[in-house]
Amino acid sequence: MQFRDREQAGRELGEHLRVLQEKGTLPDPVVLALPRGGVAVAREVARALEAPLDVLVVRKIGAPFQEEFGIGAIAGDDPPLFDKRSLDQLGLTESDLADVVERERNELRRREERYRQGRPAPPLRGRTVILVDDGLATGSTARAALRAVRRQAPERVILAVPVGSPRGADLMREEADDVVCLYRPSAFMAVGEWYQDFEQLTDDDVLEALHGGR
Protein backbone atom coordinates (compact mmCIF):
# COMPACT_ATOMS: atom_id res chain seq x y z
CA MET A 1 0.00 0.00 0.00
CA GLN A 2 1.25 3.47 -0.89
CA PHE A 3 -0.37 6.88 -0.85
CA ARG A 4 -0.05 8.81 -4.08
CA ASP A 5 1.07 11.92 -2.18
CA ARG A 6 0.51 13.79 1.06
CA GLU A 7 -2.68 15.39 -0.22
CA GLN A 8 -4.32 12.02 -0.86
CA ALA A 9 -3.15 10.78 2.54
CA GLY A 10 -4.65 13.88 4.14
CA ARG A 11 -7.99 13.37 2.44
CA GLU A 12 -8.19 9.78 3.66
CA LEU A 13 -7.17 10.79 7.15
CA GLY A 14 -9.62 13.69 7.12
CA GLU A 15 -12.50 11.43 6.08
CA HIS A 16 -11.74 9.07 8.96
CA LEU A 17 -11.65 11.95 11.43
CA ARG A 18 -14.83 13.47 9.99
CA VAL A 19 -16.68 10.27 10.92
CA LEU A 20 -15.46 10.70 14.49
CA GLN A 21 -16.51 14.34 14.41
CA GLU A 22 -20.02 13.39 13.34
CA LYS A 23 -20.20 11.10 16.36
CA GLY A 24 -19.47 14.09 18.59
CA THR A 25 -16.03 12.98 19.76
CA LEU A 26 -14.11 15.98 18.35
CA PRO A 27 -15.74 19.09 19.82
CA ASP A 28 -14.23 22.51 19.00
CA PRO A 29 -11.30 21.12 16.98
CA VAL A 30 -8.11 22.88 15.97
CA VAL A 31 -5.63 21.18 13.62
CA LEU A 32 -1.91 21.63 14.29
CA ALA A 33 0.56 20.46 11.65
CA LEU A 34 4.16 19.43 12.22
CA PRO A 35 6.01 21.26 9.42
CA ARG A 36 7.11 20.87 6.92
CA GLY A 37 5.73 17.54 5.66
CA GLY A 38 2.76 17.42 7.99
CA VAL A 39 1.31 20.66 6.65
CA ALA A 40 0.14 19.21 3.32
CA VAL A 41 -1.64 16.38 5.18
CA ALA A 42 -3.08 18.67 7.85
CA ARG A 43 -4.52 21.10 5.31
CA GLU A 44 -6.79 18.35 3.97
CA VAL A 45 -7.73 17.29 7.51
CA ALA A 46 -8.66 20.86 8.43
CA ARG A 47 -10.81 21.14 5.32
CA ALA A 48 -12.64 17.93 6.12
CA LEU A 49 -13.35 19.03 9.68
CA GLU A 50 -13.94 22.70 8.76
CA ALA A 51 -11.44 23.48 11.52
CA PRO A 52 -8.71 26.13 11.79
CA LEU A 53 -5.22 25.12 10.70
CA ASP A 54 -1.98 26.16 12.35
CA VAL A 55 1.49 24.77 12.95
CA LEU A 56 3.54 23.54 15.87
CA VAL A 57 7.22 23.73 14.98
CA VAL A 58 9.31 20.89 16.38
CA ARG A 59 12.95 20.22 15.63
CA LYS A 60 14.68 16.88 15.78
CA ILE A 61 17.98 16.68 17.64
CA GLY A 62 20.30 14.48 15.62
CA ALA A 63 23.31 12.55 16.80
CA PRO A 64 26.73 14.14 16.15
CA PHE A 65 28.13 13.02 12.77
CA GLN A 66 24.79 11.30 11.99
CA GLU A 67 22.16 14.03 12.00
CA GLU A 68 19.41 11.84 10.53
CA PHE A 69 19.51 9.62 13.62
CA GLY A 70 17.17 11.39 16.01
CA ILE A 71 18.05 11.17 19.68
CA GLY A 72 15.72 13.90 20.91
CA ALA A 73 13.54 16.85 19.95
CA ILE A 74 12.52 20.34 21.04
CA ALA A 75 9.21 22.17 20.77
CA GLY A 76 8.63 25.85 21.51
CA ASP A 77 10.58 27.09 24.50
CA ASP A 78 10.37 23.72 26.25
CA PRO A 79 13.61 22.05 27.35
CA PRO A 80 14.92 19.36 24.99
CA LEU A 81 13.39 15.92 25.30
CA PHE A 82 16.05 13.24 24.87
CA ASP A 83 15.85 9.52 24.26
CA LYS A 84 17.86 8.30 27.23
CA ARG A 85 18.36 4.87 25.70
CA SER A 86 19.91 6.34 22.55
CA LEU A 87 22.17 8.62 24.59
CA ASP A 88 23.43 5.65 26.57
CA GLN A 89 24.01 3.58 23.44
CA LEU A 90 26.07 6.37 21.88
CA GLY A 91 27.91 7.23 25.08
CA LEU A 92 26.59 10.80 25.05
CA THR A 93 25.36 13.17 27.72
CA GLU A 94 22.86 15.99 27.33
CA SER A 95 25.64 18.55 27.78
CA ASP A 96 27.48 17.01 24.81
CA LEU A 97 24.58 18.15 22.64
CA ALA A 98 24.32 21.74 23.84
CA ASP A 99 25.59 23.17 20.55
CA VAL A 100 23.19 21.02 18.52
CA VAL A 101 20.26 22.07 20.69
CA GLU A 102 21.16 25.76 20.33
CA ARG A 103 21.37 25.44 16.54
CA GLU A 104 18.03 23.66 16.31
CA ARG A 105 16.42 26.16 18.69
CA ASN A 106 17.51 29.02 16.43
CA GLU A 107 16.09 27.25 13.37
CA LEU A 108 12.85 26.55 15.25
CA ARG A 109 12.44 30.24 16.06
CA ARG A 110 13.25 31.26 12.49
CA ARG A 111 10.56 28.97 11.14
CA GLU A 112 7.99 30.06 13.72
CA GLU A 113 8.54 33.71 12.82
CA ARG A 114 8.28 33.05 9.11
CA TYR A 115 5.26 30.75 9.27
CA ARG A 116 3.24 32.87 11.70
CA GLN A 117 3.93 36.22 10.04
CA GLY A 118 3.08 38.06 13.24
CA ARG A 119 0.02 35.99 14.14
CA PRO A 120 -0.14 34.65 17.70
CA ALA A 121 -0.40 30.95 18.29
CA PRO A 122 -4.03 29.78 18.62
CA PRO A 123 -5.41 29.28 22.13
CA LEU A 124 -5.70 25.57 22.92
CA ARG A 125 -7.28 25.58 26.38
CA GLY A 126 -10.45 23.50 26.45
CA ARG A 127 -10.24 22.56 22.75
CA THR A 128 -9.75 19.30 20.88
CA VAL A 129 -6.25 19.50 19.40
CA ILE A 130 -5.53 17.26 16.43
CA LEU A 131 -1.78 17.04 15.88
CA VAL A 132 -1.00 15.91 12.32
CA ASP A 133 2.15 14.67 10.60
CA ASP A 134 2.78 12.77 7.37
CA GLY A 135 3.93 9.69 9.28
CA LEU A 136 5.26 8.33 12.53
CA ALA A 137 8.54 6.47 12.91
CA THR A 138 10.22 6.52 16.34
CA GLY A 139 7.93 9.24 17.69
CA SER A 140 10.62 11.49 19.15
CA THR A 141 9.29 14.68 17.53
CA ALA A 142 5.66 13.67 18.10
CA ARG A 143 6.32 13.12 21.81
CA ALA A 144 7.86 16.58 22.21
CA ALA A 145 4.95 18.14 20.32
CA LEU A 146 2.31 16.31 22.33
CA ARG A 147 3.85 17.36 25.63
CA ALA A 148 4.05 20.98 24.47
CA VAL A 149 0.37 20.87 23.54
CA ARG A 150 -0.64 19.16 26.77
CA ARG A 151 0.83 21.96 28.85
CA GLN A 152 -1.66 24.35 27.27
CA ALA A 153 -4.61 22.54 28.89
CA PRO A 154 -6.62 21.30 25.89
CA GLU A 155 -9.70 19.17 26.48
CA ARG A 156 -8.34 16.35 24.29
CA VAL A 157 -5.15 15.72 22.31
CA ILE A 158 -5.23 13.44 19.29
CA LEU A 159 -2.24 12.41 17.20
CA ALA A 160 -3.31 11.70 13.61
CA VAL A 161 -1.05 10.26 10.90
CA PRO A 162 -1.72 8.36 7.68
CA VAL A 163 0.95 5.73 8.36
CA GLY A 164 3.21 4.77 11.22
CA SER A 165 5.25 2.05 12.83
CA PRO A 166 3.23 -0.16 15.19
CA ARG A 167 5.72 0.45 18.00
CA GLY A 168 5.71 4.21 17.49
CA ALA A 169 1.92 4.36 17.50
CA ASP A 170 1.70 2.26 20.66
CA LEU A 171 4.26 4.43 22.46
CA MET A 172 2.37 7.62 21.58
CA ARG A 173 -0.75 6.29 23.29
CA GLU A 174 1.07 7.13 26.52
CA GLU A 175 1.15 10.79 25.45
CA ALA A 176 -2.10 11.37 23.51
CA ASP A 177 -5.72 10.73 24.42
CA ASP A 178 -6.05 8.91 21.12
CA VAL A 179 -3.81 7.94 18.21
CA VAL A 180 -5.39 7.74 14.76
CA CYS A 181 -3.07 5.88 12.39
CA LEU A 182 -4.68 4.58 9.20
CA TYR A 183 -1.98 2.04 8.37
CA ARG A 184 0.55 0.31 10.61
CA PRO A 185 2.77 -1.83 8.38
CA SER A 186 4.67 -4.47 10.31
CA ALA A 187 7.71 -3.99 8.06
CA PHE A 188 8.19 -0.28 8.67
CA MET A 189 11.53 1.34 7.86
CA ALA A 190 10.81 4.96 6.90
CA VAL A 191 7.79 7.18 6.31
CA GLY A 192 8.78 8.03 2.74
CA GLU A 193 8.53 4.44 1.49
CA TRP A 194 4.75 4.60 1.91
CA TYR A 195 4.35 7.50 -0.52
CA GLN A 196 4.78 7.45 -4.28
CA ASP A 197 5.55 11.18 -4.19
CA PHE A 198 7.44 12.21 -1.04
CA GLU A 199 9.08 15.37 -2.32
CA GLN A 200 10.42 17.55 0.46
CA LEU A 201 8.37 20.66 1.10
CA THR A 202 9.75 24.19 1.38
CA ASP A 203 8.96 27.14 3.61
CA ASP A 204 6.99 28.61 0.69
CA ASP A 205 4.86 25.46 0.53
CA VAL A 206 4.05 25.88 4.22
CA LEU A 207 3.15 29.54 3.73
CA GLU A 208 0.90 28.65 0.81
CA ALA A 209 -0.98 26.16 2.97
CA LEU A 210 -1.32 28.50 5.92
CA HIS A 211 -1.84 31.86 4.29
CA GLY A 212 -2.69 31.22 0.67
CA GLY A 213 0.77 32.38 -0.36
CA ARG A 214 0.75 35.69 1.51
TrEMBL record:
Q: What SUPFAM superfamilies does the record tag this protein with?
A: PRTase-like (SSF53271)
Highest taxon of source:
Bacteria
Q: For the Phosphoribosyltransferase domain, which residue ranges apply?
A: 28-182
Identify the Pfam families for this entry: Pribosyltran
Which terms are listed as keywords in the entry?
Answer: Glycosyltransferase, Transferase
Leader sequence segment: none
MF terms per GO, please? glycosyltransferase activity
Protein's name in the database: Phosphoribosyltransferase
- Which organism's genome codes for this protein? Streptomyces sp. R41
